[in-house]
Batch of 2 targets.
Target 1
Amino acid sequence: MVPHFGLPEFGFLLRGLQWTVLLTLVAFAGGCTAGLAIALLRTCGHKRVEWITRIYIGIFQGTPLLLQLFVVYYGLALTGLKLDAFVAVAIGFTVNASAFLGEIWRGAIQAVPRGQTEAAMALGLHYSSRMRDIVMPQAIRISLPATIGYLVQLIKGTSLAAIVGFIELARAGQIVSNQTFQPLLVFGVVGAMYFVLCWPLSWWGSRMEARLALANQR
Amino acid sequence: MQDHILIEMMGVQKWYGGYQALRNVDLTVRKGEKIVLCGPSGSGKSTLIRCINRLEAIQQGSIVVNGHRLDDSIKAIDVVRQDVGMVFQSFNLFPHMTVLQNCTLAPIRARRISKTEAEATARKYLERVRIGDQAEKYPAQLSGGQQQRVAIARALCMQPKVMLFDEPTSALDPEMVKEVLDTMIGLANDGMTMICVTHEMGFARQVADRVIFMAEGQIIEEGAPDAFFRNPQHARTRQFLGEILAHH
C-alpha cells in the first residue's frame, strides 16, 4: 500500500533540511577560513605564492563541483581513506567554497584604494595591522553582496551531495516522492523549504548592495 | 655643534621599469628647516618625498633619516617611518573609523601606548588643528579642508621628527585651501621640519627656508624664496614660475 504525504514524510524532509543547513554551515565556515587565507596569499606580493594560489583557484573554479565530490569520496577511498559521506561532501564543498570565496575577497581587497595601505604604511603600521584594521574591514563591506550571493548558491548547490548517497533536502524529497507517488506536492514542499532559506538572504544581499552603491555616491 | 641633519639623500636614482623618475638627487634637510618642492607634473617631486618614508624603493644612492640608513630591512623601514609623518593629496583617512580612531590607531598599534594616553594626545592635536569638536564623527561627515586637517593631526599623533606634505591642497575646493595652509603655517612656526610638495607659492614665500625646483627627475635649482622668485637662474625655472604665477 502506498503511503500518502503526511507528517512522517514531512518530518523526513525536515531532517533532510537539517542536513542541508548543517552542510552549508560547515562548508561556509570552512570555506571562509580557507578562503581568507587564499585571498591573503593571493595578494601578498610574492610572485610565486600568488601564482600557486592562482592555480589553486583555477583548478577548483575550472572543474565541475560534481567531479570534485567524486574525487574526494571515491578517490580518497581508493587510497584506503574511507570517509563518511557527510565528511567527504563537507571536505569537497569546503575546498570548493574556499576557491570561490578566495577569489571574491581577492577582488574586494584589491578594490580598497591603494591610498589606504599607503597611509597605513606611512603611519608605521605593520602588515598584520594594515590588513586587520584597515584593509579587511573595508574589503568585507565591499564583498558582502557577492559573499551573500555565493552563500545562496552554496545552499542550493548542496543538493549535489546526493550523488554520493548523502541524504540532504533534495535527496530526501526524491525518496519521499518515490514512496508516495506525489512528486508535485513533495517537490513543491522541498522547493518552498529552499525558498524560505534562500530568499531572505538574497533580499539582505540586494539591500546591502543598494546601501553600498548609495555610500559610494557620497 | 653642527646643525642636526635630519634627512640626507645622496645620489638617489629611481626607475619605474625603463622610465627614470629620479636622477642623481642629493638633498640635505636640517632640523627645523622648511622646504618647498615645486616643479611641473611628472618632475619627480612626489616620488622624491615618497622615497623618504620608503613608500617607493630606490635603486641607487642612499637615504639616511635621523641617523638611520634606509635599506630594504623591515627594521630600518620601521624606524624611519616612526620618525616621518606624511600628508597625502587625497587625505587617505580611514573611512570606517571615527576621526578620533583615525588618530589613535597607529600610536596604539605601532607605538604600543595605552588607549587612554593615545586619546589624550589625539584630542590635543585635534584641538591644535581646530577640529576638536568633530572627534566622534566619521571622515565622510567632514568637509575636504576638515579632513585634511584631521590627516595632519593623525600624522602628528605619531610625534614625527619631520613631516612630508604631498600636494596637500590640490584636491581641495578653493575656499578650503586657506584653512589647511594656515594649519601648516602654524606647524612651521612651532619649529616642525617640513618638506612640502606644493604649488602654493604664497605659502612658499611665507614659510620656506628653501625652495627647490625639479624637472625631469632632477633638482634644477634651489634657493631662499626671495632670491628664487626674484631672480631664478635657469630658463626652465623661469618658464615654470611664469606659468604658475600667471594664475595667481
Target 2
Amino acid sequence: MKQIKPVLLLLFIALFALAACGSPAEEPTAVPEPTEEPTEAPVEEPTEAPVEEPTAEPEEEATAVPEPTAEPTEEPTPELRTENLEGETIIFYHFGDLSGPYAAITSPLIHGMEDAVAELNANGGIRGATVEIQFADDGGSVDEAVAIYDRFTSEDDNPLIMFTYGSGEAEALTSRFAEDEIPSLTSGLSAVAFYGEGSGYTFGLGSIYPDQFGAFLDYAVANWDEIKPDSAGDEIKLAYLSWSGAFGQGALTDETRAYAEELGVEIVIEELYDLAPTADTTTALLNAQAAGANVIWTNTLAFGPAALMNGIGALGLQGEFVLAGDNWAMDLATYAFVSDPALTVGMYAPLSYLWWNDVDHPGVQQAEAMFAANERSMTEHGVGYLVLAAAVDVAAQAIENAIDEVGFDALTGVDVQYALTNMGPYEGLQGVLSLDFSDGSRSPHSGQIRQIQGGPDAFNVVQDFTDTPDLRPAK
Amino acid sequence: MAIMRPSGDFDRSYKQDMTVIRQRWQYILLIMTLLALYTLPMYASEATVSLINRIGIAIIAVQGLNILTGYTGQISLGQAAFMTVGGYTSTLLMTRMGLNFFAALPIAALTAGLIGLLFGLPSLRVKGFYLVMATLSAQFIIPWVTRTLWQDTLNGAQGLIVPVPVINLPVIANQCFLSTTFNAETAQCAYRFATPSQFIYITLTVLIFTTIITHNISRSRLGRAFISVRDNDLAAELLGINPFAYKLRAFFLASVYAGIAGALLASNLRHINSATVGLNDSVLLLGMLIVGGLGTSVGPIFGAALVTLLEEIAVVLTPLVITVAPDLAGGATAALRPLIFGLALMLFLIFEPRGMAYRWNLIKAGWRLRPFAK
Amino acid sequence: MNWQLLPQFAITGFLNGGPIALIALGIVLIFKSSEIFNFSQGQMLLIGTLSTWWFWAEEGLGLPLWAAIILGLTVSAILGLLIERLTLRPMTGQPLLSIILMTLALSQFLQGMAILTFGTTQRNFPAIFEVTSPYKISLPFFTYNNNPMMLILKQNLVWSFGVAMLCVILLWAFFQYTRTGLSMRATAEDHETAQSVGIRINHIFGISWALAGIIGTVGGILIATASGLDLSLPIVVLAAFPAVLLGGLESIPGAVIGSLLIGLTQGLVALPNNDFILGAEAAQVIRSSSEIIPYIILLIVLVIRPDGLFGQKRIERI
C-alpha cells in the first residue's frame, strides 16, 4: 500500500494536467457559436467579459438576445440569402413519452408531428430543405431525457430546434438549451422552464399553468352566479386536487395564491392523489366537500381528471362542484378512463388553441384533412395531434425566417431563437395556435374558456379569447 | 481460488506481499487505461462519453452496495433512496450555502451516510429478509419526505434545479486559460463541468478514489471483519468482532458511496426530485452487483458496465422490434429494458451466480496456466 | 379533524383492504410452502388481468366476461406453474439474496413481457359492478352537529370486498377440507416430514404458485374494474408487502387482517383538516402520508415484533 501511494499521487497530478490539456480539444464544437469569440480569448478588461458570455449571468439574457443582429449587419442583404435548399435536411428533434405515465397524451403528439412534417415536405419543405424527425422515447423519466439530449447533441453539433413534452424534462433541460443555444418548443407548460433562472431558449405551446389557473379564476369570479353549483354560496372556495410533481403542482405558485386572494377566492384544501389510473380520489373528494369547496382545480391529464370524474360519479357528488383543469385535462385521452362519458360533462378548461369542433376554421379544416388523409385512428383525434401540427408550422416559419436572415450555411440555433422571438404574433396553422414570443414572453398570454357540453366534439367556447392574467414567476 | 502468479513473481518482503500492482507491465496497463479514459472526450462522441459517465456513477453506487451486500451480507433495497439524500444535500449546500460542488460532495456523502445509518438500525433487531423490508421502507419514506416536508426548501415534488459544478481559477496575466471562462462575480476564471465530456473528469477522478478505498477496505481489518460477519456472525463474535457495530459501519459506508453517486448524478442531470432515482434503480443496482460478482473489487465495475450497456442495447434494438411489431411503436424500449435486464439477471443467477468477476478470474488463471489449461 | 368523516374514511379504508388482502394472500401462500417471498406478485397479476381483458375485449377474443375471467385465471395459474418450474426450481438451496433477486428479476422480466405482448395503450376494463349510484347509509346512533352521519359507499368497493372475502373463505375451506390443501399445510409444516408421508413437495410448490397467481389475479381484476387497467397496476402490491409482514409471513388470517388494518390506517390518515391541532400544514402532511403509512407501520412492526401479529415465533440469533 505504502508503495503505491506516491505513484498514485503522481498519477493524479498527471491526470489533472491531462484533463486540463484535454479540454481544449472540445473547442471545435464551440467554434460554430456565431458571434462569440473563442473561449480562450484574452480577458483584457474583466468588466467587459460578461457581456460576451450570455450564460454567465441570467440577468444578461435580455442583452444577449440581440446578438444575432450583429451578424446581419455584417452583410446587410437578407433577401439574397434565400436560396433553394433542395437536397439539404433540417432535423426536428422530438422527445416523447410513449411508455410512461404521460403516454396517453403524448402518443398523438408524434403522429401530429409526423403528418405535419410530411405535408410540409410535400409542399417544398423549408425553402426546399427536407425536414426529418428524430424521435426518442424517454418513458417520462428526466434521467432518460438528459441521456437522449446528450445523444442528440453528440450526433449533431448544430441542432436547430427541439420539441419536448413534459414539465419535468422541460425544467431539467432548459438551462442546457440556453447554454447550447438550441431553441425548444415544449408542451410542458411549466413557468420555471420558460422564465426560471438560466432559461431563454424554451418556448411554450400554451399558456403557463399559473396563467391558465388565473384565467379560469377570472372567468369563475365574473360568472359565478351562472356557473355555481346549486348548493354553493356566493363565495368561491377552491380545492386544488392534483398529482404531485412538476406538472401536477405547476399551477399553485406564490403568484397564483396571491392572485386568488386578490380575487377573493379561498383555496380551502390541497390534496394529492396518485399519478396512476388506479388512484382513489374518495378521500380527496370527501375532504374537499367537508372543507366546503365548491370549485375543484386539477392540474392533471388523461386518467388524472378521469379519477376525479369517476370519484364524483361513484360517490354521487354530481352537481356539488365546478370542475376545472389545465388545458391537457380537456382532451380525448380523458375519455379512455372515465367509467361513463357523461361524467365529463361540465368541466371547464382554458385553452389557448382552437379545438376540433371549430369546423369552420380553415386551420382546423387543414388539420382534419391531414388527419383523414393519413387514416389516423380516432383515439388520436386529440390535443396532441392538433397542437403539434401547429407547432411544426411555427417551427418551420421560424427557421424559414432565420434562413432568410443569415442563410442556410451560417444557420444556428441562435438565429432560430432570434427568429422565434421576432416573428411577432404568428398564427400557427392559420390560427389554430397563435403565438407571440416578443418582449421576453415565452408562452402565449391569451386563451378561451371552454366547457365540455357533450362528448369530445362538444368542448364549447363559453368565453372567447381574452388576455390571461400574467402570473409568471418573479425572478 | 489460489492466487496464480506468473513465474518469477515472488514476495521478498511483507510490503511486497501487500502490493496491489506487482509488475511493471501492470503499471503500464493501468496508466494506459486511465489515459484512455481521461482522454476519452478527445476521440469519443458525446453520447459515448455520456454513457461512460452514467456507468461511472452507477459503479460508485454499486461499490457501496458491494460493501454492504457483497462483503457484509446485508441485503439492501434502499441504495437509490440514499442517492436521493446525497443529491438533495449537495444541491442545497450549493444553492443555499453557496458552497462549491467539491466542498459539498463530502458533506453530502456524510449526510447520506448518517441517514443510511438510521435505516440500518433495524439490522440490530432483524436480519435477512426482514432487513430487506426495512431498507425497502427507506426507499418509500425518503422520497416521500423530499416531496412532502420542508416544501420551501426542497420545493416539493417539483424538486430542485442543480447548479453545474464549477472550479474557480485565478486570472493569470489578464487571461483565462484551459477553456475556462471569466466570471465577473468572483473575478476569477471558472471551469464549468457542464457537458458530459467536461463532467467525466469529475466522475473518473471520484471513481478512482472510491475504487482504491473499496479495494483497500476489502483487504484491511475492516473488510475482513465484514466478511466474517457475512460468513458466520457467531464465529465473528467469538473472534472479538461485534457484528452489530460492523453491520452499522457497512450501512454507513454503503450510504456514503450512495451519497457520492447521488450528488454526482444530480449535478450531471442538473435536476433532482423524488422520482429521479427510485425502487427500480435500487433493484438495478443490486442486479448490477450480482451480474458483476458479489464481494469482489472488479464486480461492481463489470456489473454496472454490462447492465448499462444492456440498457443501451434495448435502445438500439427498438427500431428492429418496431418493424416486427409496429403496434409497439412507443413501448418497445420500455418493454425491452426490463425484459433484457430481467432475463440477464435470471440467467446469471441460474448459471453464474458468482458473476462476471469469477469468470474473469477463470480467464486470467487460464491464461497463466496456458498451455496446461484450456 | 373531520370527525364527521371518521366512520366514512374508516370503513372506506377497511373495504379497500379487501383486494389488497387477496394479493397479500398470494404472497403468503408461496412463502408458507417454499419460503420464497415473491416480489413479482404484482407483475403476475398484471399479466393475469391483461389476459382477462384480452379475452374479453373486441380487439382480442371478444368472449363474454365470465368466460374471459375463467380463461384469465387459467393463464395466471399456468404462468405461476411455469415460473416455479423454470426459475425457482433451479434456485433450490441457493442463498436468500439469490432467491430475492430472482423474484425481483422476474418482476422486471414479466413487466417487459406484459408491455411487449399487450403494448402500452390504455384499456377500459369492463365494469362488473354499478359505477354510479353509491350506497348511502345513515348511521343510526352517530350524529355530528345534530345531523345523522352518512356513509357513502361506492358499489364496486362494497362488492369487491365481498368477493375478496368470499375468496378468503374458499381458500380456507380448501386448506381445511381438500386433500391438496391438507398436503400443502403439511408441506408448510416441514418439508422432510411431508415427503416422508408421500407428498411430492415439488408439486406442492407448483400448486402454491399457481394458486397465488389465481387469487392475485382476482385481486387485480377487482382493482381494474374499479379504476381501469394500466401497466402501473403492479404498484398495488406495494401496499400488500407491509400487510404481509404486519400479519406475519406465514399466517393466512394474518395476511387478511394485516391488509384490512393497512387499508384502515390509509383511510384514517386522510382525516386531519385545517382545524387540526398541529396546524393546517401538518394536517396536509399527514393526509399525503397514505402511501407511506404502510411502510412506517412496517418499520414499527419490524422493531417491536418482527414476527408480525400472527406469525410463527422464531428464535433466531441476529
